[in-house]
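Here is one record:
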Amino acid sequence: MRIKAGHVRAVTIALVVATAGARAPQAQELADPFKAFPAISAPTKKMPKLNSFNPTVPDAATQGPTAKDIQLEAHLTEKGKSVEQGLTWRVFSPIPGSDGKLPLVATSEGGSAAFQLIPGEYFVNVAFGRAGATRKIRVADAGLVEKQVLVLDAGGVMLNAVSGSDVRIPPGELSFSIFSADSKEDGERALVVADVKPNTVVRLNTGTYHVVSNYGSVNAVIRADIQVEAGKLTEATIQHRAAKLTLKLVSEPGGEAIADTAWSILTSSGDVVSESVGAFPTLVLAEGSYSAVARNNEKIFQRDFTVKAGVNTDVEVLLNDKGVQPASGASDAQD
């Protein structure tokens, strides 16, 4: 895995990755990550002042003069600066409603928040992507309420992958899933976020996460543990040991692919990993030894081949009458 990490300024985030088999980190200064990464480039805006109600006095929402200004800020770290974009604020009453849930008093999106709340107690939650923090506050009847600062203790991660040493993988053929590092009693990990696209910033609370990278849809899967640190952005490039192949049944080397061919790909141990129908299906396979079995016109043809990481190529199975068997068996199929 290739890692790039850089500290960022003000309200931006940076990360550090720690995982087995990782390449040496390369420091990189990010002038303005909010502009560099579309996932967190929403325009900055202040949240509007919102009237709330006293959770113990239902009619207090109409008592505008008794409401007090409450200033809220969120920081990525204890000593960090105020985050001014990408936040979602929610204010709840601490008294459950008839449905057993805490009533939502007010919500808004943006950066620092300015609410008007009737004296009473509230739960304030701030979310920054998948990261968040919650605090219980009390608005007193008399006196000013000091600014409330919530520490998110959050960072982010941006994932990508290559095939072999440095072969670019088209973004549409890659996906990532992020899980918690700890396993549950049944051995499974809790899913944090699924189907993450390459070069997308995912904002997370500080901690270790288990990342699963899928290249294609067959068996090219790589796993790695990544450490997210508060106030940092980590760029992690995972190295897949796989390649993209195009299957062809041809009458001669380099010849035109024969249509209406059914394909099965078997591992060296005989397990079927892929089945398809077409003149030249394309698939991604993990590095290793395989057998391609082609069925056409009630006959079977076979070829053994090896997949090398990062070497995308065609696998041609020759159409030859010698050794050809009916579709009921393939023990003497042509190599």
